[in-house]
Amino acid sequence: MATKQVILFIVEGMSDMRSLELILTRYFSNSHVKVEVTHGDITSDINTNASNISAKIGKIVKACIAQNRFKQKDFLKVVHLIDMDGAYIDDGCIVQDDRYEKPFYTTRNIFVKNIEKIVDRNERKRNNINKISSMPKVLKDIPYEAYYMSSNLDHALHNRINISDEEKEKCAYEFEDRFANDLPGFIEFMNNPSYCINTTMKESWQFIKVDCHSLGRYTNFGLCFRNKNTN
Predict the structure, then answer these.
(1) Mean pLDDT of 89-111
(2) Domain coordinates of the chain in residue numbers?
(3) Rounded Cα–Cα distance for residues 89 and 2 (Å)
(4) CA 29 from centroid of its chain's CA atoms
(5) For the whole prediction, is pTM greater than 0.85?
């Protein structure tokens, strides 16, 4: 029996996995394809930069290989879902407010106690995203695709911003319950023109990087489903 090819999805957090893992597995898996989902926030990591982000993504792939006894040639592609977190807004849209220990997001501003910290994070994240948004391969020969959720996955999928971990978990279970047995409904959801930027990959990335779009409710993840199991 031929070895199944693997699609590895990298999402940012555990609630992101809960929202999407079962849906993605049911949508993409078949007799020839196996789906793996893992998590890790790479683009905001203080130790990640444009010169090493490809290697860090490769490290995640290698961990998947080791854990599942895959071979590198088994991978059909790696799909990376990232939160935008307002990374491309003008620094003037970052507002100092002592009420917020953690960043508080709106569709126009980020309110935060320490402005410099978010300015530095956004610069680092922009550099990382600029690298991977047009990166075609990881580990030299595995096809790689990056998609965004803006301002984060909770915003894009659940239309909720600044929610607690408990609320994230609740929304994730509700999203899974809603679409795990309704894949056509999920595809329709991912093609809603009010928040889905499903033009071309290049155009969708150009869109999210201008004005305050990286704070708005937008995603280009619907493009992932246009050519099932192919790049």
Answers:
(1) 97
(2) 5-86+121-225
(3) 48
(4) 20
(5) yes
